[in-house]
UniProtKB/TrEMBL annotation:
GO molecular function terms attached to this record: metal ion binding; sulfuric ester hydrolase activity
Keywords for this protein: Hydrolase, Metal-binding
Species this chain originates from: Virgibacillus profundi
Domain of life, source organism: Bacteria
Protein name: Arylsulfatase
């Protein structure tokens, strides 16, 4: 029988928040073990770092230019010919998704046999004044209905925390087993019980956390709240003033946040990650009990990161490492695929590589629509094989709309509305403290990356490039026109 395949997705986890990468405080023993059982990718990126476009690339293997999702926009139908789950289903796998999907319509199966859904807040389905009954969260969200069945009246907003606040926190107020993180694990264990034993399975466990609200169970918050936490990175180019007091908002994306509020948010964020890690450990134990652990390929990744105060910035959707760089681990506990266990790869990989990698691991054909590449050869041959020269990332984000080019060792950023540029030497400056744009010794490298972006954007409908130079000030679009056609 072919191997089982497990995709563990988390939401908004920074790449550096792994203890195996020597984070000064974060503890992730189970993820560390997955890395020891496989390969840890040190330069994995979310090309379009927010939930909708990143997950479109995960579920289709396509670049953002091919999915048409180059920013965040809800309620755009998902009509793709080939999907990750669909290919596994067609290959006679039993397919199941549990947790966050963030597709539209909300109950779109995207190729899975079944979806047990918790998307988090999902604004359009929470706003009762403009929601159609069929799309209301009460009808679409399985976790919310389960929670109300357990408690009577509990709701997602009982803690008073917003779904996009990266600065305000409060520990979970109910029993730990009622937390959405535990629920994803509980439902996944139940899938092991009721799956078809005559078929291999493809399971997508998709946790909403550590995306806000920052609501870890008290026991995990207590692990971090009294520790000396690392200060956020602060580059010489970053804004130092906040005359409007934007940092005081509970849902700020930038600004000067009160010091103790920020420290509590850091503690809660790290606590949510360790909570997820323990729940992953719980599921790995269950896999051993059901006899499937050693015949399952496991890929762990996040859709994007969290800035968490770096450069006085918060949340995601920006090109900096805290937002765009993500954890990415491919594990093979049974050592069936011939991976170089307990190894690391520094080649640049991204969300679109997940689909071809997992299909390759299961010896399933990769559709022609896929733009990504299987990382399996990197896990066997490592640095000796050719690989892509760079990743092109972008996000329509109002006046801060941007494009970036990176190979994980250096990064060129172009802000499309005002033409501002930045260049970082990530090997010597991984925290992006110094913008090298005006440094003479880097001009050749900057020009090379700028020209790569010119070619990437040539012919795009926004008009950002004429094939010879970049053109600032064009209107950004979160979704390209062809998606609606």
């Amino acid at each position: 029988m072919k191997p089982n395949v497990l995709l563990i997705m988390v939401d908004q986890m920074r790449a550096d928040c792994l203890s195996i990468l020597d984070h000064p405080v974060v503890d992730t023993p189970n993820l560390d073990q997955l890395a020891r059982d496989g390969v840890l990718f040190e330069n994995a990126y979310s090309a379009t770092p927010s939930c909708v476009p990143a997950r479109a690339s995960v579920l289709t293997g396509m670049s953002q230019a091919s999915t048409g999702r180059v920013g965040y926009q809800d309620k755009v139908p998902w009509n793709y010919e080939h999907t990750l789950a669909g290919e596994f289903t067609n290959a006679d796998y039993h397919t199941q998704a549990i947790g966050k999907m963030h597709v539209y319509p909300t109950r779109n199966l995207t190729g899975f046999h079944n979806v047990v859904l918790h998307d988090g807040y999902m604004h359009y389905s929470r706003f009762k004044h403009n929601t159609k009954t069929i799309e209301s969260q009460e009808y679409t969200d399985d976790y919310l209905n389960w929670l109300r069945g357990k408690t009577g009246q509990a709701d997602l907003i009982d803690l008073g925390l917003d779904c996009n606040s990266s600065t305000v926190t409060r520990p979970w107020h109910l029993a730990e087993e009622l937390h959405p993180t535990n629920w994803v694990t509980t439902e996944s264990i139940d899938f092991l019980r009721r799956r078809d034993p005559t078929k291999p399975f493809f399971l997508n466990m998709s946790y909403v956390r550590p995306h806000p609200p920052f609501d870890p169970p008290q026991v995990f918050y207590d692990m971090y709240k009294d520790l000396e936490l690392p200060d956020p990175s602060f580059g010489g180019w970053a804004e130092t003033e906040d005359t409007s007091g934007e940092g005081m908002s509970p849902v700020t994306a930038k600004g000067l946040v009160p010091k103790m509020r920020l420290k509590r948010a850091q503690a809660a964020y790290y606590a949510l990650i360790t909570h997820i890690d323990h729940q992953i450990g719980r599921f790995l134990n269950a896999m051993q009990e059901f006899g499937v652990y050693h015949n399952t390929v496991i890929l762990f990744a996040s859709d994007h990161g969290e800035l968490l105060g770096d450069h006085n910035l918060f949340r995601k959707s920006l090109p900096y490492e805290g937002s765009a760089k993500v954890p990415f681990i491919l594990a093979d506990p049974g050592n069936n695929l011939g991976l170089k266990e307990n190894s690391r790869v520094d080649k640049a990989v991204e969300m679109r590589d997940i689909m071809p990698t997992l299909l390759d691991a299961a010896d399933i054909g990769i559709p022609d629509t896929v733009d990504g590449k299987s990382v399996m050869p990197l896990c066997k041959d490592g640095e000796d094989m050719p690989w892509r020269e760079y990743i092109h990332g972008e996000h329509a984000f109002g006046e801060k709309s941007f494009h970036y080019i990176t190979d994980g060792k250096e990064k060129y950023i172009w802000f499309s509305q005002n033409g501002e540029e930045q260049f970082f030497d990530l090997e010597n400056d991984p925290q992006e403290m110094t913008n090298l744009l005006k440094v003479v010794d880097y001009q050749e490298r900057i020009e090379k990356r700028r020209n790569q972006l010119v070619k990437e954007l040539e012919g795009r409908e926004e008009g950002y490039s004429d094939g010879k130079s970049l053109i600032a000030g064009r209107t950004p679009k979160p979704t390209l026109r062809f998606v609606f056609e």
